[in-house]
Amino acid sequence: MKTSSKIARRKFLQLSAMSGACLALGYISYSGREAKIVNVDIGDDSLEAEVNPYIFIDSKGKITLFNHRPEMGQGTFQAIPMIIAEELEVDIENVSILPSPANREKYGDQMVVGSHSITSNYDLMRKMGASAKEMFIKAAADKWKIPVEQCMAENGMVINRNTKVKFSYGELVAEAKKLTPPEHPALKDPKDFKIIGKPLPRRDIPVKVNGAAKFGIDIQVHGMLYASIERSPVLLGKLISFNDEKAKAVPGVKHVLKTQREVFGQVREGVAVIADNYWAAEQGRKMLEVKWDNGDLQSWSTQKIKEDYVNASHQPAEVFEQKGDFEKTFNDAANKVDASYETPYQTHAPMEPMNVIVSVEKDKCEFWGSTQNPNGVRSFLANKLAISEDNVKINYTFMGGGFGRRSMTDVAEEAADLSKKVGVPIKVMWNREDDLTQGPFRACSLNVCRGAIDSNGNLIALEHKVICQDIRNQNGDNPKPTGGIAGGINTEYAIPNFIISGVLRKFYIPVSYWRSVYHSTNCFAHESFIDELAHAAKKDPLDFRLSLLKDHKRYTQVLQKVAEKSEWYKQSETDTGKGVAIVERSGAFVAMVAEVKKMQGKIKATKITVAIDCGTPVNPDIIKAQTEGCVVMGLTAAYKSAITIEKGKVVQQNFDTYKLLGINECPEIEVHVIASTEKPEGAGEAGLPAVAPALCNAIFDLTKKRIRVLPFNLEEV
After folding, report:
1. Is omega for the bond preceding 425 within 30 degrees of 0, making it cis?
2. What SS3 class is residue 206?
3. What is the pLDDT of residue 8?
């Protein structure tokens, strides 16, 4: 059955508040078929779907571009419109940018994880802009009665090459809107780019600085109540009973109700205090008397988990990738190296704690909040409430950080449950203690490595075994880990004999996606071990890597660039150490050099130099900013903070015990973006994994002490 899109088209045009004639372009895409650019006004009855508009241009020349990816600081709000504007030949400074509706059928996967937003949309967004441009050129050529080859577009105008007479896009809308978009518009040569590749200031920054920007936590809905939820401090504790008499006596408290949320298949119970203001809900929550059944979970501690990992490291492992005969080569080698590395649980700790508003009525539902996964939330709520997705509206906002945490649906589940019970919109707000202690967390890990060097100093064998929890296999009886837990282990090194394997552990502590996921733990181990092997081979650590990657152009390029910019080969002062590490994450290649210095008897990180190749840089300034943020987060995880467990509970309650890197502690960060014409790749996470190994390798260069356990106390090394 064909789906009529006329009502949806009219609504889009009304919402855009544009006057007179309007050209609106979108695309339709089916699995396995190339996306087709469609003129919203004339549609395409051969396609059984609605159009997802990205471009609106009215008769006054007002241009509105939609960004369909939620903005959490990574820069997609402007970067995606920049791609469209480049091919459309308009000035990005004169374009209005709006977030698109959340709609999987129209906009595909709008989830922002894994640094895929730009790379997965680059070609299509270019094609979208180029199609609109060619329609305007055709409309102008028809008016002038000349071939399209005698016309060109520039700055929102079509120019007659012969007479230099111009038409604005607005003047051409009435004719252009009657045309069918070209299926294969010509795309610009990258050398002619005017927008892509330029470090343009971000349009969302001023409103975030002056307070005008709306984040999820800022949203208020008429008639809403606030909910603060008490949960077991021992994760997975079961609710026995609660006394709400004192809580209900707090002025403003309206209800006290049981609720729950599901985290990767595990149900976690809570008691919600609902009030007409957040302060009352918090105070009422403090007055609750709750009894929990924690079973034997209180016997768990960080030390017990470490012991479990060590014991598990001797178990047979699931092999993910192998080459040659590692065991024979290793056993026959004269120069053997082995080492183990430990990384802790980490929490996401976005500056905006978790919060959502959900309103549930009979057969419809509406959501307001900051989410990385608008369509996932939409589908989840529809399924949970047994209603059509068409009756679920998602209003997503700017996010005050996400790092993977806001890709989940558990907080929306709590709010929907309570709204359905109470009959009004409910705003669930987590406090900082909730945010740090309730998870889910980055998985802690044990990495066991072995390697062998031959008599000529060549690396001939390497084994890397990962022991950790698996995000994709946290429950049930399946004992095998997925290959995802080996993320960040560099198999591009030219090693004739290697084996990558893993051992799965399952605990009551939930784990989830954290910025760069397993790359953040495995790269620390792998690049630290490569450094140990380089020293065992009596070779310069950077040259050692280059020798193993001589056939890999992009790794070689970033290594050479970072060597140049960090003055790697220049003789260091006696109180200074340098360390190098590399990684590939989401298609981006990074080489990093950390520099440490001994000052007044204590070691300080003084400079981080980064070379990053993420293909065509849409906005180099955003790439630099993301890389700088990655470095700060990586330093925090390396020597400032960790989530630890005692008696089954998370120890760290707030930022006094879960410490973040202060601005006064931050070293100089110098980022060099490699010029490239390759397709853009992800830059939001690539700068993080190499931080810890580069830093620890620099410390070894200075002190000859190896750091194999994170976090460590930098000043006590």
Report:
1. no
2. helix
3. 42
